[in-house]
Amino acid sequence: MPALTLYPLPGNEERAQAIARALADHADVQVAECVVHRFPDGETLVRVQHPEAGRQAVVVCTLNDPDPKTVPLLMAASTLRELGAVEVGLVAPYLAYMRQDKRFLDGQAVSARVYAKLLSRYFDWLITVDPHLHRIHELSQLYTLRCTVVHAAPRLAEWIKDHVERPLIIGPDSESAQWAADVAARAGAPVVIVEKTRMGDKEVRSTVPDLHLHPGRTPVLLDDIVSSGRTLVAVLDHLRQRHALPPVCIAVHGLFAGDALHEVRFAGAAKLAVTDTVATANDEGVEIIDLTQDTAQAVLDMLAGNAAQAAPTRATINTGAQP
Ligand code: R5P
User: Fold this and answer.
1) Do residues 311 and 145 touch, judged by C-beta distance below 8 A?
2) How far, in Å, from the CA of 95 to the mean position of ligand 1?
3) Structure confidence by residue, pLDDT tens digits, 126-178
4) Beta strands in 68-107 (DSSP E)
5) Cβ of 294 less than 6 Å from ligand 1
6) What fold does the segment set 3-151+291-306 form as a domain?
7) Which of 79, 90, 158, 306 could form a disulfide bond with 123, CB atoms 3.0-4.6 angstroms apart?
């Protein structure tokens, strides 16, 4: 039986307890403390419960709003290693900085690569849920640690089958095409893909295909991430003007920056569902699709040496080649 100790960073305690419960019959699992103290001057002190010999240490921290979390995260990982953890893994259901996967303008950081280098230096392995992969096709093109990706598609499709009659899946941009089609196939629904142009953080223009080909179907907008909410709002505005049936909005990662949740509702989302990767809004009315079992299974697979994506050698990655 694998032996592991989960170390939740603040805000991830319930998530760690849920994973521990899901693993209880399959692993010797404990949940230990990781205390993060912030000094008045803004510096941070991390204190972890001493890892027991022979156990894997697994830090649990979802990485929305990543900047204030990253320093404590790296300090915890480094300390666990110094104190003798066999390996230090990371369960980060939302993985930050994946969207800036290229230098769009001269001088910009390729944040996805910088962040990957940082985490890869401190952790031996990583489990995350549907990272935003677009120009980069696999995490192993960025990360030099062992990675497993949990795919939300089967759970999203189950949720749609249980909650929506005659759905029409709408992928809100070309990036969503592949996995919107996957969810649609699993849910036995047709799919259409919107053309999106983003002009700024909060400025999005969408061209929605003709929906008359799918009469009597409930629009189900399916995005991987809701951040400002503008991607969904642009499509919702279009649907409202065309008197479509009340639409459902589903996202894997509900970041809901600022007023996004309110704006998506106001634009006409009749129902909203997100997975549990981000502690979204304890807001009533947002349905949460639970991925605990899938995440726990990924942990077991990782500990059994069956990581879903093998990491390339460090030598390959450190060439500095553009992904
Ligand atoms: C974009 O590439 C993603 O797939 C999402 O569509 C995007 O991150 C959503 O952002 P927002 O909610 O700010 O429009």
Assistant:
1) yes
2) 14
3) 999 999 998 899 999 999 999 999 999 999 999 999 999 999 999 999 989 98
4) 88-91
5) no
6) Rossmann fold (3.40.50)
7) 90
